[in-house]
Amino acid sequence: MKILVNGVSRETQHAELARALEEFGYGASVVSTAVNGEFVPAAQRARLRLAEGDRLEVLAPMQGG
Amino acid sequence: MLQLYQSAVRSRLMLGTARYPSPAVLADAVRAARVEVVTVSLRRESAGERAGQAFWSLIRELGVRVLPNTAGCHSVKEAVTTAHMAREVFNTPWVKLEVIGEDDTLQPDVFGLLEAARVLCAEGFEVFPYTTEDLVVAERLLGAGCRVLMPWGAPIGSGRGLNNLFGLNALRAHFPEVPLIIDAGLGVPSHAARALELGFDAVLVNTAVAQARDPVQMAGAFAHAVEAGYTARQAGPIEPRDLAVPSTPLIGTAFRG
Hints:
The structure holds 2 protein chains of 2 kinds.
Chain A: E1 2-5, E2 8-11, H1 17-23, E3 32-35, E4 38-40, E5 55-63
Parallel strand pairs in A: 1-5
Antiparallel strand pairs in A: 1-2, 3-4, 3-5
Chain B: E1 2-4, E2 7-9, E3 13-16, H1 23-33, E4 37-44, H2 51-62, E5 65-68, H3 76-90, E6 94-97, E7 100-102, E8 107-108, H4 110-122, E9 126-131, H5 135-144, E10 150-151, H6 165-174, E11 181-183, H7 189-197, E12 202-205, H8 207-210, H9 215-235
Parallel strand pairs in B: 3-4, 3-12, 4-5, 6-9, 9-10, 11-12
Antiparallel strand pairs in B: 1-2, 7-8
């Protein structure tokens, strides 16, 4: 299944968001997620099922003013 | 102490964390200025570089309180979603709410700001809205549940200081009990001192420190200026006059009469 991860097209074998994040290398990272513009709390990542073409945002702490 | 929602902070200088020459310089600047609150943001994380993880480790080591922003958001939806994501990552109800309305000046979209503030305050966020000096907007933001306001001094990164003294003075006078933090546009420590002298409760500075030739030294200079301005406000500045008043007593002046 192809989805957009931070604007880049990626292939994933996993429909569950939590497992897809691990596959993409975010397993141990402090990140926050949104799918199709909607916030997905960490506690819901194991339940959320991705669909073809979904837009996944993976955000992390960054410098800001 | 400055009361910001449930928290009391001693330092009236807040620092942004962006645009420093290196993470080490940022850390030294925060320590030099003895700031207790720094602003942070959220950005897309690359699983390979993990830049966000390194930055977050640095901030936690500094032991400061973080004020996450919604910088770069141009809509209510983006700002609200970013606030939700920031609350989870940074584990704080604080959010510096920015809804940008115009790209050249990065002027707040006060209509979107108010709408987003209503949503977030109702959800229990402690909102620090980045706003203009407009009194009516300020009144509405307070009505929405904001207990702190962050009026701009000048456009972000411009270094122009307090652009609209009349408007800012009016804001201060109109809301004497509301913590007001000048956010954006300060260029040199005298701007910060002026803000505190006028009765503003604190200032947030980023570019003026981060882009100085020596950010650590400049952070210290801003800290001194904020302290001087605050102390001067407490001491009660004199009112300006148009004509001279001799400071040396005239009684007993020689060669008169």
